[in-house]
Amino acid sequence: MEADSSSPTHAALAAARASYGRLLAWLAWQWRDVAAAEDALAEAFAAALEHWPMQGVPASPEGWLVTAARRQLLMAARRRRLAEDPAFTALFPDAEAPAEDAPSIPDARLRLMLVCAHPAIDPSVHCALMLQVVLGVDAARIAGAWLISPEAMTKRLTRAKAKIREARIRFEVPDGADLEERVQSVLEAIYGAFTLDWGRAPEDAAGDLSDEAVYLAELVVAHLPDHAEANGLLALLWLAESRRAARTGSAGEFIPLDRQDPKRWDAALIDQANARLAHAATRQSPGPFQIEAAIQAAHAARAHTGVTPWADIVRLYERLLACAPNVGARIGHAIATAKAGNDPATGLALLHAIDSSAVINHQPWWAAQGYLYERVGSTDRALDAYRRALELTNAPELRAHFERCIAELSAA
Question: Buried b vs exposed e over 64-100: b needs ≥16 C-beta within 10 Å?
Fold first, then answer.
């Protein structure tokens, strides 16, 4: 029986689904098998769809799901043990044993993220594995962010989870140099989660991945208060969050950063972020997240000075490119360069220097081209770029923004 989208069952499942990462992390940590925990939790959600409409939503939906998932894991374990030695069944508790309360220890997610960052697993899949396993992001969505096909991403993730099982990777918290190496991958995954949902409107913020990412970043800093890059990441996320309310106008339209009203920014959160960034600087261990946070802090300075320090931002981007020459940094550098020198042609040259195969399906690259072509007076090319950006955009606010740009250029 399928639950109606407006039913209590649907509402309860939606709420429980928001806790997917926490539930999966707890199950995987207890059973030391990520793939098995995923399968069991999927079966539990399917069982809820079957039973809740008839029996009613349980008082603790998460606890019910955990119980059902544990039962699936126990039965699977029994089947495996029976095939080897029937005597092993006596070692397992009864499948109908009362459930424990729904797990509420947030550290389980961080511990599982550290497992996903194990050096035996291909480093190129660390972040994607964490996004899927711990935060419940589907492979197709991760593939879009990585600019590869969903099929290729699914294969990578399947191989990584098999590696955890086959290599008998230990579920334990690393220390020393091993911890430092893995924490960097965890930070990158948290940032990836934040950017995946950064297109949402303010009223949709509750429960989205960006909200979860900020919480996890705060949790990392709580565990590692003097880690420079962890503090830098938290400062970066807080600075981005400080502008959430200003990103859309009264009619829900998207407002680019340089056109936002600084009075709508959260001054207290900006101050917190700046203090966190200053603390990171005392560790004298600069890294990409600290530099990105410094770029956002420079933008935030407009609230006090009334102007954006584009020349300073260009220099910060140059530092960022020296240590992390990724596509996002190169696009940001191109725009900042154009703004600093009032020279959109140079900005376009920098955009075109990026390998086209890496950005052909990357919306920000096309949006940046549209903006700069418009500034040099190349209307036809600007229209083509904005139309391509529109094709690559799902967020309603951004779609409306590109549609408006196209309409205004067409009418000019």
Answer: bbbbbbbbbbbebbbeebeeeeeeeeeeeeeeeeebe
Residue 225: HSE in the Cβ half-sphere, 13 Å Cα cutoff: 2
pLDDT band at residue 9, thresholds of 50, 70 and 90?
low
Q: What φ, ψ does residue 206 adopt, rounded to 5°?
A: -60, 125
Phi-psi region of 97 (alpha: psi -120 to 50; beta: other; left: phi over 0): beta
**The dihedral sign for the CA sequence 110, 147, 292, 270:** negative
Tokens of 261: 């009203």
Q: In 167-264, where does DSSP find H-type helix?
A: 176-196, 209-223, 228-241
Fold of 322-412: 1.25.40
- Measured in residues, the chain has a length of 412
Helix, strand, coil distribution of the chain in percent, nearest 5: 70, 0, 25
Q: What angle do CA 334, 337, 341 make, to 5 degrees?
A: 150
Which residues share a beta bridge with 248?
254
Strand partners, 254: 248
Q: Which of 178, 184, 296, 290 is nearest to 228 (CA)?
A: 290
Locate the domains of the chain by residue range.
8-91, 106-197+204-224, 322-412
pLDDT in tens, 94-122: 433 334 444 433 467 787 888 888 888 88
Round to whole Å and give the CA distance between 56 and 270. Answer: 45
Sign, CA torsion 76/82/84/89: positive
